[in-house]
Design a protein that fits this description.
The protein is of the alpha+beta class. The protein has 13 helices and 19 strands. The strands form 6 sheets. A 6-stranded antiparallel β-sheet has the order 11-10-19-18-17-16, with helices on both faces. Strands 4-3-5-8-7 form a 5-stranded mixed β-sheet, with no helix packed on it. A hairpin with a 4-residue loop joins strand 10 (187-192) and strand 11. Helix 7 (221-228) packs parallel to helix 8 (244-252) and helix 7 crosses helix 12. It is elongated and about 85 Å long. 38% of the residues are buried.
Length: 413
């Protein structure tokens, strides 16, 4: 009987200890009453502050609640302060408080800590809708779209008090129709006849792939031919063939080719303000450098802009991500007259989709280009592995343009 009593006493003691541990775990791990200030507070990293609307008024962003932590550095235990400071830097840790938002492993881990000085919160911000690349949205919108605050506490959420709406030329319907056709590593860019950015996609997205330059190869031959043929003597010196760019280099001269490339918009550091990757510089002029374009690199947007004169009667306009409220300035005229540009266009293969005629230049290499002057014009540049699906991509763009034409006709009717 005595043995049974010891067992009972032991069991009671164990239960009491477990109960005490439970109380400690539930209440001892819970931080004391929140002590952070409700006054405007700044975030640890920039937040996308404004809404963005695309062509036809379709939203490109949606408002979301992002997980965050309100950090009061003076209240943090030394071990937590050291870890957070190592990741975020010492300057933030000198603040009275700040909002830590992010997706790092340490942030995710810290969300589970129950310590003073660290309080779970949520932040209202904007994020791209499905099919809209974050990289492109960031570059197109520029630095004005981002802020670290001040953020104000409304209810249980921190939010940016004032937001505005940016109107971008980006067309979500076109983006979604082209996206499935890219293939891994592929890129497609599309601009309209005013130089407005309609879409710029890479697969995988959000990795800056769509902004990366690649060797031009023969991709710019129609543009350079139009400029070169403004000099009649070259008609007898340049013949069709595999080495056309070298022929141009030898007959026209590398320095003239370089000036022509500059007129076509190549060599400028940026095509659109805020882009995440700088455009490549032009190489030093020499026949060896210019031959076949192996040493001449360009981005998809640079390629698209170079073909603008074919649908703008010989003028090249600056590129813009925004919806134009009025006609864009013609830009710098080229040497080639419109008649020469038309002559070069007539020499290219034609693809007709629903009555819309696309001129197509698809040499072997990194780039393929198609353009049409219909409905304000559209230039589609295909890059990398996506060149294997050039016809399918042009067809999808043509179908979209036909539908857009029908929408405009319905509105005007």
């Amino acid at each position: 009987m005595q043995w049974d009593r010891r067992v009972a006493l032991g069991s009671s003691a164990t239960v009491a200890i477990l109960a005490a541990l439970s109380v400690w775990y539930v209440f001892g791990r819970t931080p004391p009453q929140i002590t952070y200030l409700r006054k405007p507070t700044y975030a640890s990293s920039p937040l996308f502050a404004d809404a963005a609307m695309g062509d036809l008024g379709i939203p490109l962003t949606t408002k979301v609640l992002e997980p965050a932590l309100v950090v009061v550095p003076s209240e943090l235990p030394a071990w937590a302060r050291a870890q957070i400071e190592h990741q975020l830097g010492a300057s933030l840790m000198r603040q009275t408080q700040f909002i830590w938002d992010g997706h790092s492993a340490l942030f995710q881990k810290a969300r589970g800590w129950a310590i003073t000085g660290l309080y779970p919160a949520t932040v209202k911000t904007w994020t791209p809708v499905l099919g809209m690349s974050r990289t492109v949205l960031q570059a197109a919108a520029g630095a004005t779209q981002y802020t670290r605050g001040p953020l104000t506490l409304k209810g249980s959420d921190w939010s940016i008090p004032v937001a505005r709406e940016e109107k971008l030329a980006w067309n979500l319907a076109l983006t979604r129709s082209l996206q499935p056709l890219l293939g891994t590593g592929g890129v497609v860019a599309a601009i309209d006849g005013q130089g407005q950015l309609m879409t710029l996609l890479g697969n995988p997205s959000d990795r800056g792939l769509a902004w990366q330059p690649h060797p031009v190869g023969l991709g710019l031959v129609p543009c350079l031919m139009a400029e070169a043929l403004a000099e009649p003597r070259l008609l007898n010196e340049v013949k069709n063939g595999q080495n056309m760019l070298k022929q141009l280099s030898d007959a026209w001269g590398s320095s003239k080719i370089q000036r022509a490339l500059q007129r076509l918009g190549l060599g400028a550091p940026q095509s659109i303000k805020g882009q995440p990757v700088t455009n490549p510089p032009l190489p030093h002029p020499s026949p060896e450098v210019m031959s076949q374009g192996h040493a001449l690199w360009a981005t998809p947007l640079e390629m698209a802009r170079a073909y603008l004169p074919f649908i703008r009667h010989g003028a090249i306009a600056p590129l813009t991500p925004y919806l134009a409220t009025q006609a864009i300035e013609p830009g710098q005229p080229l040497v080639a007259p419109p008649s020469t540009l038309l002559e070069v266009t007539q020499g290219l293969p034609i693809l007709v989709i629903g009555g819309i005629r696309f001129s197509v230049w698809r040499p072997d290499g990194n780039f393929a280009v198609a353009y049409t002057a219909t409905d304000g014009g559209l230039i589609v540049v295909v890059e990398g592995p996506a060149t294997n699906n050039t016809i399918a991509l042009i067809h999808a763009a043509g179908v979209w343009l036909n539908q857009l034409h029908g929408q405009k006709k319905g509105i005007s009717g």
